[in-house]
Design a protein that fits this description.
single chain; Cytochrome p450; binds protoporphyrin IX containing FE
């Protein structure tokens, strides 16, 4: 096998999607910084990924107008708005402005009230699992819990949550390396449908503001030049909403799937519930819900001894960084005691995940709650991987439980 073979398998084949990890190991051993024929640099080492994500020579691909280039006509919202980029796709100074304003709406008070709310929502999901005995963990809690948490936080009415699972899954296909032209077309139709939904929701929030993130962001959008434009408020509220469950669903699914095949770890976690924090960190490391991230070279740079020109693409393989043997001892081992620093799963630098703490609280609540509520939890059917790499997860995680008496 050559490094190009390994990368092609990881990015493009069903076998590589099912098991990227043996191919990552090959890259660690043979080509931790590899330049593909098209010039893209693929990094699998933890330190190299860390440096790229943190260094200002690297950023999001340019090629779209920054705010400073806009005219006053840009304030109108259209579906084709070329300036409508979420914070995820922007570089400073626009990224700094938008992230600052969105974080401001994400207030400590709103966050503080969230833990008991998350626990109550999780108990509702566990009630359903208890009644049914055998369920798909993703259907029963992996999707409904994160969507309820972020739905309430952003201000999306409960009656509308269910339809977003397929819409977000379909629109997120746009970031997968295997996406076909038809899938990209469907992804953009789904994104447009979500956008139209949010346009309508904005009109309702303007008429009747509530104590939620979207109303708060719209208030920010009524401010001066340094504030959010209305289209920025909408697309960033959409980002928060979508990023808030697709990934967390997979943290719960991938993490529990890894845990349940380790009966000793399950027993230990039952005896020492305080280990849940490090267990969730290990779940994030072991089978990261986000497997890769990318940056463009903004000024000539060198990384891992490779010289890079402006515009070159660099892919940071986060899932591989989490298995780097120079960073994690015996990286293939799932160890709920591991204490070797945080994994790369939430990225790093200025785009470090804004919802990392929220996702961690949700993960801990679900893992601790499942073990508390059920005296046994077993995988009850085959695990089928979704054919996706960037947002890695299972189609379903079938489990069978016995209720604690
Ligand atoms: C286990 C769950 C999650 C994982 C693995 C995850 C992963 C990530 C990663 C890797 C990035 C960096 C992307 C980049 O550098 O280009 C990111 C950014 C982001 N995440 Fe998450 N995320 C999770 C949950 C959440 C939740 C619950 C929210 C919402 C509350 C959220 C909101 C965001 C936002 C808004 C950004 C963009 C930040 C920026 O560009 O400055 N994420 N996430």
């Amino acid at each position: 096998m050559t490094p190009d073979d390994a990368l092609n398998e990881i990015l493009l084949t069903a076998e590589g999607h099912a098991d990227p990890y043996s191919r990552y190991r090959f890259l660690h051993d043979n080509a931790p910084a590899h330049r593909a024929p098209d010039g893209t640099l693929f990094l699998s080492g933890f330190a190299d990924c860390h440096e790229v994500l943190r260094h200002e020579s690297f950023g999001k691909a340019e090629g779209f107008l920054q705010r400073s280039d806009r005219t006053s006509a840009d304030s109108s919202i259209t579906l084709e708005d070329p300036n409508a980029r979420t914070m995820l796709d922007l570089n400073p100074p626009d990224h700094t402005r938008i992230r600052g304003l969105v974080s401001r709406a994400f207030t400590p008070r709103r966050m503080k009230n969230l833990t008991p709310h998350i626990e109550a929502l999780a108990e509702e999901c566990f009630d359903t699992i208890a009644e049914m005995g055998e369920v798909d963990l993703l259907e029963a809690v992996g999707f409904p819990l994160p969507v309820a948490v972020i739905g309430d936080l952003v201000g999306v009415p409960r009656a509308d949550w269910a339809k977003f699972r397929s819409l977000v899954t379909s629109s997120a296909m746009s970031i997968e390396p295997t996406a076909t032209p038809e899938e990209l077309e469907t992804a953009s139709e789904s994104a447009a449908e979500i956008y139209l939904y949010f346009l309508d929701l904005v009109a309702k929030k303007r008429a009747d503001p509530a104590d939620d993130l979207l109303s708060a962001m719209l208030m920010e959008s009524d401010g001066d030049q340094d504030s959010l434009s209305e289209s920025e408020a909408i697309i960033n509220a959409m980002l928060m909403f979508a990023a808030g469950f697709e990934t967390t669903t997979n943290l719960i699914g991938n993490g529990m799937a890894a845990l349940l095949v380790q009966p000793d770890a399950v027993a230990e976690l039952r005896e020492q519930p305080d280990l849940v924090g490090s267990a969730v960190e290990e779940m994030l490391r072991f089978d990261s819900p986000v497997q890769l991230d990318a940056r463009s070279v903004l000024v000539p740079a060198q990384i891992a001894g490779v010289d890079l020109d402006v515009g070159a693409n660099v892919v940071t393989l986060l899932g591989a960084a989490n298995r780097d043997p120079t960073q994690f001892t015996e990286p293939e081992r799932f160890d709920i005691h591991r204490d070797e620093g945080p994994p790369m799963s939430f990225g790093s630098g200025i785009h470090y995940c804004l919802g990392a703490n929220l996702a961690r609280v949700e993960g801990r609540t679900v893992v601790a709650g499942l073990l508390r509520r059920f005296s046994s939890i077993e995988l009850s059917g085959p695990l089928v991987n979704r054919q996706r790499l960037t947002l890695r997860g299972y189609e379903a995680v079938p489990i069978k439980v016995t209720v604690n008496s």
